[in-house]
Design goal:
Blueprint: E1 4-7, E2 12-15, E3 23-28, H1 39-57, E4 61-68, H2 73-82, H3 86-103, E5 111-114, H4 119-131, E6 135-138, E7 141-144, H5 161-166, E8 182-186, E9 195-197, E10 200-204, H6 206-218, E11 222-228, H7 232-247, E12 252-258, E13 261-263, E14 266-267, H8 278-282, H9 289-298, E15 305-307, H10 309-331, H11 340-358, H12 363-382, H13 388-405, H14 419-434, H15 438-450, E16 453-458, E17 461-466
Parallel strand pairs: 3-4, 3-11, 4-5, 11-12, 13-15
Antiparallel strand pairs: 1-2, 6-7, 7-8, 8-10, 9-10, 13-14, 16-17
Helix pairs in contact: 1-9, 2-3, 4-6, 6-7, 9-10, 10-13, 11-12, 11-13, 14-15
The structure holds one RNA strand of 75 nucleotides.
Length: about 475
RNA sequence: GGCGCGGUAGCCAAGUGGUAAGGCCAGGGUCUGCAAAACCCUUAUUCGUCGGUUCGAUUCCGACCCGCGCCUCCA
């Protein structure tokens, strides 16, 4: 199946065709680095990662830009409150964000763009918008006049016609002339950071940052612009207005939006206080990053996903099942031969897997295909119908799975026994067991368990894994 | 009020105009010195409610009920 996505702009699932064959110019809205990101935020960042992977699976080369908003009201407020410079304050959370992304195995975009490093370009864009009559000034701030952009509302499918027609344009007013008008440039305030630019002193509004950096790096028309659904209005709507007023060209061909992570049926958010950071979950609560990644990836991105500790444990168990399967494939002894039914099942699973991913990233269906294969193959192994010639093919199914989901490799524990030491203890226990010294063998088993190592006695011998 | 999303088993969650994927939990079993682990099996006559179209609807249409989100910053 050719790759296809649901496009918020057209409200339809459409085949994905980049402007330039084989290359995808993509812009995704990144974090505002005023605090640690919570896992609701990371649902969207995981979505970007999956999006990148599915595009590459389709042979497309990526040119992906993600912004880091390192200047905004909250950042300024917090930095001032802590007596820190803007840079000191934002560097801390930028690094934390990047570390968290690495923990969740998120691929790095080709480019990360920090807003404060592109202020002159923003000023130039605003000047051009002023020259073409899309703006007005008020108290040193510059506002975008949405009545000058007829397409306003086309992304969020809001009809602002009546409002715009009825708006009285009062050039001399110091207020916004229309409730929907938004700030491109904010006047400097005492005690707050500001930049001297060709349009005067001040700092950029949030929306202009994305439009300008996207155009700067990727050109007037993007293939994909993505973000969370809460950004559709007003952020992305405003981005379109600015960018298209500036270039006269469509800003993005495909708009992709991920749904929220919910807690007890409500949006996870800082303001509601119902959030967990990655550090909360992986630190004191002891959850594995892979489980979080799996959970966030397991439901299709356009469906809101209810987060519970149960679902997180459930994700961890599901990963265990896959790891056990892999371990069994690698360690069990099989008779010579090859079962073509298993070969066919593997091919079918992989086919269904990719088919589902190409269908607007249907990760739930993709997972189902893999688990079905796992069950079929386990049964074959139980019945002695799985042979050495099947091993490689079955492992390849898992490799395909993991090149996308990326959860099979356990995150290395800090400290812990080295492999060689574990092997030694296992051998010691096996010897004790053979001598029917069960007290001793049980003691070694318990010791290893305490160190987070689980032993499994199988008919082909003992194997171990880390918890 | 406008716009958008959703209501499928105990929980999470796919899906199709032809009779309900998958994961977790639970129960049962295989294996085992005992365990643990692992593996297997079982678990929705039913898809928010009521109408309509149809040979047939969970799937299409209409109405209604409920939940959530955006409309101010927000992934």
């Amino acid at each position: 199946m050719p790759l296809r996505f649901y496009n918020t702009l057209t409200q339809q699932v459409q085949p994905f065709v980049p402007v330039e064959p084989n290359v995808v110019r993509m812009y995704t809205c990144g974090p505002t680095v005023y605090d640690y990101a919570h896992i609701g935020n990371f649902r969207t960042f995981v979505f970007y990662d999956l999006l990148r992977r599915v595009l590459r699976l389709n042979g497309l080369k990526l040119d992906h830009v993600m912004n880091i908003t390192d200047v905004d009201d909250k950042i300024i407020r917090n930095a001032v409150a802590q007596g820190k410079s803007l840079a000191d304050y934002t560097n801390l959370y930028t690094q934390a964000f990047l570390d968290d992304c690495a923990t969740l195995r998120l691929e790095r975009p080709e480019r990360l763009a920090r807003a404060t490093e592109h202020i002159p370009e923003m000023a130039t864009a605003i000047r051009k918008l002023e020259e073409s009559g899309h703006t007005y000034r008020s108290d040193g701030s510059v506002y975008f006049r949405i009545s000058t952009f007829p397409g306003y509302g086309k992304l969020s499918h809001n009809d602002f016609e009546g409002m715009v027609a009825g708006a009285r344009v009062d050039v001399d007013s110091y207020d916004k002339t229309d409730a929907r008008d938004f700030a491109l440039w904010k006047a400097p305030k005492p005690g707050e950071p500001s930049w001297d630019t060709e349009i005067g002193s001040g700092r950029p509004g949030w929306h202009i940052e994305c439009s300008v950096m996207a155009i700067e790096f990727l050109g007037a028309t993007l293939d994909i612009h993505a973000g969370g659904v809460d950004l559709i209005f007003p952020h992305h709507e405003n981005e379109i207005a600015q960018a298209e007023a500036l270039t006269g060209k469509p800003f993005a061909n495909y708009w992709l939006h991920s749904e929220f992570l919910l807690v007890d049926g409500q949006k996870m958010s800082k303001s509601l206080g119902n959030f967990y950071t990655l550090r909360d979950l992986c630190g004191e609560l002891g959850h594995a990053p892979e489980a979080i990644r799996y959970l966030l990836a397991s439901a299709p991105y356009r469906k809101s996903l209810n987060f519970t500790m149960d679902s997180l444990r459930s994700a961890a168990t599901a990963i265990d099942r896959l790891r056990n399967f892999k371990l069994r494939l690698e360690s069990a002894k099989f008779d010579d031969g090859r079962n073509t039914k298993i070969v066919d099942a593997g091919e079918e699973a992989v086919r269904t897997f990719y088919h589902a991913l190409n269908d607007d990233l249907n990760t739930a269906e993709a997972l189902a295909a893999i688990f079905e294969f796992v069950r079929e193959t386990n049964i074959a192994m139980d019945e002695g119908q799985f042979f050495s010639g099947n091993r490689e093919g079955a492992l390849n199914v898992l490799r395909d799975f993991d090149s996308f989901f990326d959860v099979l490799k356990p995150t290395a524990p800090a400290g812990g026994l080295p492999d060689a030491e574990i092997d030694r203890l296992v051998a010691e226990r096996t010897a004790a067991k053979k001598a029917r010294d069960f007290a001793r063998s049980d003691r070694i088993r318990a010791e290893l368990l305490e160190q987070g190592v689980i032993l499994e006695d199988t008919k082909d011998g003992v194997r171990w894994k880390r918890k």
